[in-house]
Amino acid sequence: MKNIGGRVTSLDVAALAGVSQSAVSRAFTPGSSISPAKRELILAAARKLNYVPNSIASSLTTRRTNMVAVILGNLDNPFYVLVLKSLIEALQARGTQILTFTVPNGGSSDNALMRVLRYQVDGIILTSAQLSTRMTSMCHDRGIPVVLFNRYIPGSDASGVRCDNAGGGRLMAEALLLAGARSFAVLKGDPKGTTSQDRLQGFAERLLEEGIPRSRILELEGQSVYDGAHAATLQAFRDEKKPIPDAIFGINDTMAMGAMDALRGHMGVTIPQDVMFGGFDNIDEADRWPYRLTTISQPAREMVDETLKLLDLDNPGAEIEPGIDIKVPGKLIWRDTIPRQA
Amino acid sequence: MKNIGGRVTSLDVAALAGVSQSAVSRAFTPGSSISPAKRELILAAARKLNYVPNSIASSLTTRRTNMVAVILGNLDNPFYVLVLKSLIEALQARGTQILTFTVPNGGSSDNALMRVLRYQVDGIILTSAQLSTRMTSMCHDRGIPVVLFNRYIPGSDASGVRCDNAGGGRLMAEALLLAGARSFAVLKGDPKGTTSQDRLQGFAERLLEEGIPRSRILELEGQSVYDGAHAATLQAFRDEKKPIPDAIFGINDTMAMGAMDALRGHMGVTIPQDVMFGGFDNIDEADRWPYRLTTISQPAREMVDETLKLLDLDNPGAEIEPGIDIKVPGKLIWRDTIPRQA
DNA sequence: TTGAAAGCGCTAACAA
DNA sequence: TTGTTAGCGCTTTCAA
């Protein structure tokens, strides 16, 4: 029933079925030329032996591992959990699995990338951190496509998919202005992250058009997470007694929620009467009763689909086109943290 | 600078460094016998060529892939996100990466397992779903350790780590009784999941000791998720107009939160005055201002550590000990959804 | 310490 | 459609 080391190989199956070893290989390769009768014979033998093809061995010759590396940053943000889930499902459906890597938030991916390369993955998806152009070209030299999820590296030839973050920032500014807000605070994420920068920039641009300069926007560092935003909010408004502005824009929903809870829980502030709130991402939590957060929805599924298109796993040999930058628009979701006009 | 197909192999490095190919292998294998001078020479050549060892090729001979499969179920439950995060970090620290698989919630893992086996992973962690004993033995025959996270399979020889779920259920019943509750509802998860069953059973047992039979407990199906609990709650108490009990026990926090929001948001119920709430898991969200949920904390880190201990990745050859069942106790975390005694 | 040589389990020409 | 054969890139004896 089993070999030394508990290993059943195609050779064992071949012996039992009385065929050549390559026949066994063919029996397990869809679309290869083998007679149905022989295939059945082989599959029966394989079942008997509990044989499972060794895809590690096959990838040595095919040069395909059916694995894609996903470099994860902030799983504390439910948006990225959703992204990961969507990626797993979409990839698993086509027979490729995800190898996960993490990078300290805001750190460089270069180290992680070196480890990734050892595994000979068919593609790399970066949802976190920076990446040197040297690394990008190392991957491309090896024919491994890299796609950046919701980030980009200026001057790099890595492709990427992202939400129109600046556009989303503008939309939120527009909504807040419409509701009458004139003074603003923003909860920023990783200062090196382009996502946070872009959202803030679009936001500030729109305000500038109304004559409100960026210097009048209070910028708070929330480190992209609930707790960070909670703490920054308390420090600014309770400890340092800064005046609470008309509106606060959370660069992501989870930070907006942190700030909302800080203000309501520790300072008795009511929303939106005392202060309006805007978020970004439209995570599930934003729609829940305690928050009902007006936010910009990022079309996660669509972004995932575009990511996989860029990865182009079905065309292994294909030349990797450099620097494609796909931008999908966000959408304003009206809820209760910004009053609608009468 | 590079080969056909963009592949740099140890042979290229050997050629450039003027050594044998096996020397290159040794230079990259910690603890193998090679002179420091030669190693430096080789590493320099490798750097020049952007060489990265192919771990797929090496695993063919070493029979180690440095990959562990994690079979994921419900990432909608933040507790399992935390578990995944902890696993990634702990494993990555020792140089092994995680290959993720998903199974439809409540489904069988057997199909997933077959796919897992192709990848020759060094170990398998199941955080979801059922597993046939046939599969367990297939893994064990191959020398692949399997550990079940927070579930067990009666009669199986798969090992597992879990929270003392029944004990936790008892603790919660105790707390609720102490606060004066006499009528109860429970939000259940996957009916086939032992986790949900055990928590409910422990809960019911303690109530029975007070003379409250299980038949008097209203059991609601929340499918382990926020939305499921939200909907089930609304249906039972708003649509079917069942009387609201003194206390509701969410088999996990996220369901408790869904029910709390349903009751407060749609029926004007106040907590804990109108109804007390208990949860399980102690996810971060449970501590936030809108919820402040009294719950049973599962020591995720500790459970992850025990999981890795059972996996015993450092002893590849070791005989797999069957059926070790590690139970770590949960702890009651008092917050605001159950009134403390005066 | 070093190099030569034989595999690990599979796929992919090539011939038959 | 089949079997034979030569690798894929590495590790690991075995001699030197």
The description of the largest β-sheet of chain A is:
6 strands, parallel
The succession of helices and strands of chain A, N to C, reads HHHHEHEHEHEEHEHEHEHEEHEE
Number of helices of chain A: 12
Strand order of the largest sheet of chain A: 2-1-3-4-5-11
Question: Would you kindly provide a written description of the structure presented here, covering whatever features stand out?
Answer:
The first copy, chain A, is α/β, with parallel strands linked by helices and 342 residues long. Chain A is 42% helix and 16% strand. Chain A has twelve helices and twelve strands. The first copy, chain A, has a six-stranded parallel sheet. A six-stranded mixed sheet of chain A has the order 7-6-8-9-10-12, sandwiched between helices. At the A-B interface, α4, α5, β2, α6 and α11 of A face α4, α5, β2, α6 and α11 of B. β2 (97-102) of chain A pairs antiparallel with β2 (97-102) of chain B, so a sheet runs across the interface. Chain B binds a DNA duplex (16 and 16 nucleotides) through α2 and α4.
